[in-house]
Amino acid sequence: MHSLRPLIPILTAAGILLGGNGLQGTLIALRGAQEGFSPASIGFMGTAYFAGFLIGCLVIVRMMRAVGHIRAFSALAAMAAAATLVMAVAIDVSVWVLMRFISGFCFAGLFTVMESWLNSGVSNQDRARVLALYRIIDLGAVTGSQFLIPVVGADGFAIFAVMAIMITLSLVPVSLGDRSNPAAPEDVKLDLRRAWEISPIAAIGCIAVGVTNSAFRTMSPVYAQDIGMSVTDVATFVSVSIIGGALIQYPLGYASDRHDRRTVLLVTTALALAAALALFLFAGSGLLLNFALVFVFGSFAMPLFSLSAAHANDRAAKNEYVMLNAALMLFYSFGAIGGPFAAAAVMEWFGPHALFLFSAVVYAVFLALILWRMRARAPAPSAQRGRFTALLRTSTIFARLAQRNGSKDTPDRKGDK
Question: Which residues form the Major facilitator superfamily (MFS) profile domain (predicted)?
């Protein structure tokens, strides 16, 4: 633990920011619905967030090179806190769309700074412990922060003030706890064409998961509120899905290390589709049934990104690991930009339950593509398989932080086309 002590301030800041970001995502949907914003407007706010996030991922390294970690972090945290407060004083759709775009840009940059800092400060022998601790912090912060909404209340100024306070407080451990301010990392080399050549099904899978997960994350509070859930129930509904994904991800990863990953990906997608259809058909009939079905949905929907990435890594050369996983995160972001608005439009036409019908249709298309690719290409030999790594979609730098635990240490290999 002594060797991890210098990283505690950064991990503390990460917990605060992850919690604030998770809180904001749920609150925007709830408060927007209370203010009379249409589902399409709320969906477009989700689209704006992920568009800002994508741009932030692409430009933040240059900002870090220009001004350093601490100054970049401070500027982005100040902008994110200001954007949060602007939403409290200007209840207007266009203003909220712009502020969500700024928030997405800022959070992409903040996560990149933190993960770059962690990557530069962790030794290879401590990397597994830091990754495990980071994932625990992510799960605890995001799920726990949901319950600040019923405690503080979704209406009024106070909840926005709490979010701004959380973002601002993240500056304290970063500013006072570490004086190293390491050199900015080099830009992650992105080659989307090469990533597609390595594994078309992984690229398509990340796009599909981006569409469905972003739609769920943005619009599920609207769905839950529209079917009569209280604010506390909405927070529980969102949290249960996150917990399900966290608990089941590692058993699925263990299975994928021992069998054709595409088979595990196929079964997992089929179960996510079944859970989505069950929510569409039955979840309006009871609160406990909602919670049970969304737990199952999260258990199989959330790990699909990491399973897709693991399949792609089995086909890549060891020096392509960072590039590939950064490219897959961008594929995810492309899907995430379109997902919320498309799902919101479907919900406006067919009602709140159609959120899960929308997801089921996307999963059905992905299932068909998996079956097609399984016929077109043989599975990767077991000797080529790396170990499954659960990947967070927080920044392109996360691939560097996780690379020692993934497939980097496996022999060189090239993807067949």
Answer: 198-417
Q: Over the stretch 294-343, which tens digit does the pLDDT of each residue have?
A: 999 999 999 999 888 888 888 887 777 778 888 888 999 999 999 999 99
Same structural domain, 133 and 227: no
Angle at 263 between CA 257 and CA 266, to 5 degrees: 125
Q: Which of 145, 146, 142 is nearest to 235 (CA)?
A: 146
Q: Could you tell me if 325 and 363 lie in one domain? A: yes
pLDDT digits (tens, 9 = 90+) for 24-51: 999 999 999 999 999 999 999 999 999 9
Look up residue 351 and give its two tokens: 């009602």
pLDDT of residue 382: 57
Token pair listed for 121? 């400060």
Q: How many residues in the chain?
A: 417
Q: Among the three residues 172, 187, 202, which one is the final residue of a domain in this structure?
A: 187
Give the per-residue pLDDT at 55.
93
**CB atoms < 10 A from the CB of 285, how many?**
10
Of 124, 175, 155, 163, nearest to 30 by C-alpha is: 155
Q: pTM for this structure?
A: 0.88
198, 415 contact by CB (below 8 A): yes
Residue range(s) defining the domain that contains residue 54:
1-187
